Amino acid sequence: MENSSNGAFSNFINNKVLPPIMKFVNTKPVKALQDGMVYALPFIIIGSVFLILSNIPIPAVAAVIKASGWAAFFNQAYTVTFGVLSLWAAVGIAYVYVRNEGYEPLPAGLTSMAVFLLLQTLNIANPLVAAMGKAGSGITNAAGNVVMSGSAVSQNIDKLPKVLQDFVQAPVTGVVNITWLGGQGMIAAIIVGILVGWAYSAMIRKGWKITLPEQVPASVANQFTAMIPAGVILIVAMLIFAAFSAFGNTDMLQFIYKVLQTPLQGLSDSLGGALVIAFLVPFFWFFGVHGGLIMGAITSGLLIPNTFDNASLYKAGKLTVAQGAHIVTNEFYNNFINLTGSGITIGLVIFTLFAAKSVQFKTIGKVEFVPALFNINEPFLFGLPIVMNPFLAIPFFLTPVIVALSTYLVIYFGIVPPLNGFAAPWTTPAIISGFLIGGWKMAIWQTITLVMSTAIYFPFAKKYDAILTKEEGEKAAAEAAAGNAEIEKM
């Protein structure tokens, strides 16, 4: 009866739940988002290195680097790599969308970049505004030392004629505001990339292009092919910018950030959001579908901006939950929810190496050991298997949920600091990744989560191992009996 109900549940999941989810995941926009974001990853990772170099978590060393002026150079490198991740996303998403449609993709990627820049107001607040007043930052020198307080700045500016005060405090125009090229512009970048990719492909498909004679080199002809779609898209984008400016006194990027991105980031950063993500990754895997890819595609547009926000706070020396640091970031997803592989199966690896008695467990454990160090566990998922295995379902679902819950709480209550924004590659071994993304306290906590995984998996693995050992013994006895029967016939 139990097997019948399990079979009915599996059939329900496979026939009713998974098909619409897979249909959504395999849509053109989601595929473009998933693969397009990959183009931003090298810049995110390299930029993270410059972030750490400019903010070494050793005060004495950090002070020396800052005084030497090298911190400013590292910050420059960080700003044009990790600091403009939304720009990379806008280019990559449109590029992949059009590439998947079978057309020349680079013009679409560049068009998307132009649209993304066109839709923002090209000015920044005057730095004097933030420097003025008792709560102002004041004026600092290259070493970061305050040379004039905020109050002193206000007092001196107040001595100027009113017209001159207004002039020196006016926004700086004719510049690109990198605020919207970073994490705050991510949802807008995703929308722009997808819409540009879709519109560009549709126009090319309908023949909206300038066709030159065959004698014209392909490199030149391709640019003329792109001219009409790019021109139409840019004109529409200009009209959208004009509408937001005229009727809303804002721009599209700021509007999307306030109305859409801020609430979604808050949802992704909640305890409930963390638990849902932690459960759904192994849930999809259990039924043989790549849970990491599905949830990564859905959550990356929100969790990567969370990482960026934390990096900015870390850079400013304000990385605390009280000052707005996010608990759930892309590194929370990669280096806790998926630590040692989906389901956090390191506990299962330890069991197979030190306590398993069955040949199947021992053999697969030896194969899985090295991949597990780099957060890869497909040998377990399909070789043991864990997929559709009721004996290991409970720890497989439970472990990442418990780890997500406990990690959220230790950060929330200040036991360990928030993640610092360093984008450690998902293959970075445990403990090392913990140190990189949060210092020695996070490395210790990550070690504790490995112990938790072992404690959760052990009793279930022991029971399953006993079943496998019994089956192997019965099979060996049957084979021996068959061999003896053959000998007697001879």
Could you describe the 3D structure shown?
The protein has 490 residues and is mainly alpha-helical. The chain has two domains: 36-125 and 171-259, no CATH class; 271-489, no CATH class. Helices cover 70% and strands 2% of the residues. It has helices spanning 2-25, 28-36, 41-54, 59-68, 70-79, 85-100, 106-118, 127-131, 150-157, 162-169, 186-205, 218-248, 252-268, 271-286, 291-315, 330-337, 346-354, 359-373, 378-383, 390-412, 432-489; strands at residues 123-124, 139-140, 146-148, 172-173. Helix 6 (85-100) runs parallel beside helix 11 (186-205). The chain is globular and about 110 Å long. The mean pLDDT is 87.
- Estimated structural class: mainly alpha
The side-by-side strand order for the widest beta sheet comes to: 1-4
Amino-to-carboxy terminus distance: 46 Å
Rounded to an integer, what's the Rg over CA atoms? 28 Å
Q: Unreliable runs, pLDDT <50, ≥5 residues?
A: none
Strand runs, count:
4
Number of helical elements: 21
GO molecular function: protein-N(PI)-phosphohistidine-sugar phosphotransferase activity
Protein name: Permease IIC component
GO biological process, one term: carbohydrate derivative transport
Function: The phosphoenolpyruvate-dependent sugar phosphotransferase system (PTS), a major carbohydrate active -transport system, catalyzes the phosphorylation of incoming sugar substrates concomitant with their translocation across the cell membrane.
